[in-house]
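re: that chain from earlier
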Amino acid sequence: MKAKQFLVIGLGRFGRSVAKTLCELGHEVLAVDSDESLVTAIAPYVTQAMQLDATDEAALSTLGVGNFDAAVVSIGQNTRDSILISVLLKELGVPFLITKANDELHAKVLRKISADRVVFPERDMGARVARSMLTPNVLDLMNLGDDHQIIEIRLPIGWAGSSIFSLNVRRRYGVNILAIRRDGRFLISPAPDLPLESEDVLLVMGRREDIEKLEP
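^ sequence. v structure.
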């Protein structure tokens, strides 16, 4: 998987989580906030962290936002700043814009200014928790539409010691293993002959009905 470059603006709980996860997955992340303490806290976990007022167009333009693959605006309750920063990013040529919304009205405005994706972290997390209660083997889930999902699951029973190749995962189950989380780090595009370990967590992509076959 080719490393990409991401800009994350707003380092509250959601922004920190996005920035750290993207870096753990092997991508480059520039994390930005006007609060120096938040910038200092995230610095060890991202490629670069910068204190900057993203509502200042001149300051924002110095980041070269058009060179990033995507930008994430995760401003907290300040709806005005969220909208203003999103508008500026679009005007400066960011290729793909993901924005955090506080409510449906906020989301409607963000869509009007051509945000490519609007997310509701608290609502979405509640849905994920509910799914995990019903399916304990599923740790995380992202719907891609058209009945496809990216899902994080514990290693199915009986797989430990075998390899992806020997299990014939793609042909037998119709899913792709994108990464393996092992000992706190991600193995991206794991080798087909890599032995699986009992504590591994798999990040897989496929149709919902096919992924269900992986459950023990």
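The first strand starts at residue 5 and ends at 9.
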